[in-house]
Design a protein that fits this description.
The structure is a single chain. With 565 residues, the protein is of the alpha/beta class. The chain contains 18 helices and 20 strands. It folds into two domains: 285 residues, FAD/NAD(P)-binding domain; 116 residues, FAD/NAD(P)-binding domain (3-Layer(bba) Sandwich), CATH 3.50.50. Helix 1 runs parallel beside helix 14 and helix 14 packs parallel to helix 16. Bound molecules: flavin-adenine dinucleotide and 3-acetylpyridine adenine dinucleotide. The site of flavin-adenine dinucleotide has 37 residues, from helix 1, helix 2, helix 12 and helix 14.
């Protein structure tokens, strides 16, 4: 019997995705006594950390902050070993969370969802998997990830290549040994920059195909001492509270130089940049308060990094080719590396500058640049570090149909439209965790994920207590929010870069700045206020049932009564 002919699985809520978002969502909905199930395409839990197993993969938010805060016990029990945890360590953590909170029995793996349609009459979502298995539920929560749809660009001749090809976002579980191999890495974003130094140590020959140079700062990764860990454990509450109120979702974030970089002398500025460079990590962007809003200030940081690259890279031609110059610092995700620039001093590493001569084709035995008289680089393996169809990719791969059979793909033809990044008009009871229009990828994502998951589960609790069976934003509220997201973005330098934040990395994708740049603290306050005022901008259905005598608890009392892990 095929899966298609079986009866649908009936649930109160279906959650798509088993990463940080989906795991916590399941925990919260179970605490409300709901029948909930996670469906996940992968064969394991962990999301990003299940798929991205490339050499050097690790987080660049400090591990102690790149973690859940909802369970004090979990916080106290878990020991992170390094400032920036490796992929295997983060995956172990998420597997531990799945076990510790006994989540696995409600997680169905290897189940890629291909469609989700709203049945207006029944007030239920009907999801279908690739194998034809169906799930129906009142609530559907997309925890499908902002960076989960990896993409390989189309290049002529690709299918003729005789060697092995890999994408960083879908790395073989058994690992890849590059010893003695000639390797070509295409792409120099965060994934390329993390993996290149390690591949270079193994490979006989490494060619790095760079189209656009990126800004990278040293990670200064190090083991975490017992004293530091004990200090964090004893002050975790404070750290998390700061993270929730902060702009970027990190409690330890401190502006090194208050005010504008332009208010300092060149020597004072450099002293602060040197300190930030020595401290390591993406917090370099916090050297001054105006780096992402003032182009002249930004140029001072750019010039500092240019000087560093020229100091580190011995061959002047290679150093010049590595200098990022087409976008202000920070307007593409700043990269964090260990020995990236120094890797170009190795005799087995060659930088191929695609701005001088683009890739023309992939041949059976290598990568060719330029025209007919171009150069061919012979390789045994190709590593595509070419990124993701970010933020909307995973959602639009699913054929999502709302009321009156309207397709999300059509509604978002000109770019994503959401209210708060949480819901879309015309798609009742469908929630998105870290959807476009929320701070998401501009923040430490665990802080933003927890906030979204808690808001969604509080909203569902409010509905259940109040006898509401449907929630949907109004078109007006959504339009205002989309306009606000856009206005705030244009107060910054972010839209100046051809980044994946605006969809510029995917041919044909509408170019709209997708995340909300207004900051985690301000955004959180807005979401809370909306809920406390009875979900302004949303329409809740079921008032008539409430007025027939069912008790209604307001959002504030719901939140007070919610249980935590
Ligand atoms: P994901 O972890 O992406 O999980 C989504 C899951 O949904 C995936 O497992 C996917 O298979 C599943 N899914 C998607 N579509 C379907 C479907 N149709 N059917 C079934 N299942 C589906 N963020 C930070 O804040 N700090 C960092 O240091 C950091 N480092 C990163 C490093 C890398 C290499 C990458 C790629 C991202 C990094 N991020 C970082 C962002 C990271 O994606 C988030 O921090 C976080 O892991 C997202 O969790 P999630 O559960 O929302 O999504
Ligand atoms: O992807 P990217 P990523 N020919 O899109 C190049 C998170 N992350 O996987 O800039 C040649 O940044 C492309 O060139 P260009 C983090 O949020 C975090 O590296 O378009 N080159 C670019 O160099 C990050 O931002 C960590 O000109 C082509 C590269 O491929 C996000 O995930 C680690 C090409 C893609 O870079 C994505 O990072 C890893 C072509 N046809 C990921 N097409 C941490 O450290 C694309 N490129 C926390």
């Amino acid at each position: 019997m095929t899966a298609r002919s079986t009866r649908p699985v009936e649930l109160d809520a279906v959650i798509v995705g088993a990463g940080f978002s989906g795991l916590y969502m399941l925990h919260r909905l179970r605490a409300l006594g709901m029948r909930a199930r996670v469906v996940e395409a992968g064969a394991g839990v962990g999301g990003t950390w299940y798929w991205n197993r490339y050499p050097g993969a690790r987080c660049d938010s400090d591990s102690v902050e790149y973690s859940y805060s909802f369970s004090k016990e979990l916080e106290q029990e878990w020991r992170w070993t390094e400032r920036f945890a490796t992929q295997p360590e983060i995956l172990r953590y998420l597997e531990h969370v799945a076990d510790r909170f006994d989540l696995r029995s409600d997680i169905q793996l290897a189940t890629p969802i291909v469609s989700a349609s709203f049945d207006d009459e029944e007030n239920r979502w009907v999801l279908e998997s690739e194998l034809g298995e169906r799930f129906t539920a009142t609530f559907c929560i997309m925890a499908t990830g902002c960076l989960s749809t990896w993409r390989i660009p189309e290049i002529a001749g690709q299918s003729t290549f005789q060697g092995a090809s890999y994408h960083t976002g879908s790395w073989p579980h058994e690992g890849v040994d590059f010893t003695g191999k000639r390797v070509g890495v295409i792409g120099t974003g965060s994934s390329g920059i993390q993996s290149i130094p390690i591949i270079a140590e193994q490979a006989k020959e490494l060619y790095v195909f760079q189209r656009t140079p990126n800004f990278s700062v040293p990670a200064r990764n190090a083991p975490l001492t017992e004293e530091y860990q004990a200090h964090v454990r004893s002050t975790y509450g404070e750290l998390r509270a700061k993270a929730r109120a902060s702009s970027g979702g990190l409690g330890a974030f401190e502006l090194m130089g208050a005010g504008s970089a332009l208010e300092r002398t060149a020597a004072e500025r450099d002293e602060i940049y040197e300190r930030a460079w020595a401290k390591g990590g993406a917090l370099f962007l916090g050297s001054f308060g105006d780096l992402v809003v003032n182009e002249e200030s930004n140029k001072t940081a750019r010039d500092f990094i240019h000087r560093k690259i020229r100091q580190i890279v011995r061959d002047p031609k290679t150093a010049e080719a590595l200098l990022p110059d087409d976008h202000p610092l920070g307007t593409k995700r700043i990269c964090v590396d260990t020995d990236y620039y120094a890797t170009f001093n190795r005799p087995n590493v060659t930088l191929v500058d695609l701005r001088r001569s683009p890739i023309s084709e992939i041949t059976p035995s290598g990568i060719k640049t330029g025209g007919a008289d171009g150069e061919e680089y012979p390789v045994d393996c190709i590593v595509y570090a070419t990124g993701f169809d970010a933020m909307t990719g995973a959602l639009l791969r699913i054929d999502i149909r709302g009321r009156e059979d309207r397709a999300l793909r059509d509604e978002w033809e000109g770019g994503p439209r959401t209210y708060l990044g949480l819901m879309c008009a015309g798609f009742p009871n469908l929630f998105t965790v870290t959807g476009p229009g929320s701070p998401s990828v501009l923040s430490n994502m665990t802080t933003s994920i927890e906030q979204h998951v808690e808001w969604i589960s509080d909203c569902i609790a409010h509905m259940r207590a109040g006898g509401f069976d449907r929630i949907e934003p109004t078109v007006e509220a959504q339009d205002d929010w989309v306009e606000h997201v856009n206005d705030v973005a244009h107060m910054t330098l972010y839209p100046k870069a051809k980044s994946w934040y605006v969809g510029a990395n995917v041919p044909g994708k509408p170019q709209v700045f997708m995340p909300y740049v207004g900051g985690v603290g301000a955004y959180r306050a807005k979401c809370t206020e909306i809920a406390e005022r009875g979900y302004t901008g949303f329409v809740l259905r079921g008032e008539e049932r409430r007025s027939k005598g069912r008790p209604r608890r307001d959002a504030r009392s719901e939140r007070a009564s919610r249980s935590s892990g």
